[in-house]
Amino acid sequence: MGCTLSAEERAALDRSKAIEKNLKEDGLTAAKDVKLLLCGAGESGKSTIVKQMKIIHEDGFSGDDVKQYKPVVYSNTIQSLAAIVRAMDTLGLEYGDKERKVSVQHTHTHTHTHSWRSEKP
């Protein structure tokens, strides 16, 4: 038994080192990945989070995407505002500024006379 490796043993050692290197690189890449499980009821904003991550961390939305989502964002904003106003009335909460009552009445009228979803972008 000598101190040198045979050609076959050298090839096996080289393959082993290459595999180890690949495993190490894959491990470093996997350590950078973040996986997130979004749980929640329907319409609770799970897809909104994903879209916001796309805007912040990727290239953002294309012009067509913006045209497509603009009416949806408007609609969601108005519907959410209307829900808050209804909840304030239901709970008997007062507005900090009495002049907001006029704004609320305008918003209420606007949400019943305009359909954001049908608006052309």
Structural key phrases:
lipoprotein, rod-shaped, 121 residues, mainly alpha, disordered C terminus, 4 helices
Describe this structure in words.
The protein is mainly alpha-helical and 121 residues long. It is built from four helices and no strands. GTP binds at residues 43-48.
Distance between the termini: 80 Å
What proportion strand? under 5%
Poorly predicted runs of 5 or more residues: 116-121
Main sheet overview:
none
Number of helical regions = 4
- The secondary structure category is mainly alpha
Average pLDDT rating? 80
Shape: rod-shaped
N-to-C SSE series? HHHH
Radius of gyration: 29 Å
Task: Tell me the total number of β-strands.
Answer: 0
Kindly state the percentage of residues in helix.
55-70%
Outline:
The protein is mainly alpha-helical and 121 residues long.
Helices and strands in order, then pairings?
Blueprint: H1 7-32, H2 46-57, H3 63-91, H4 100-113
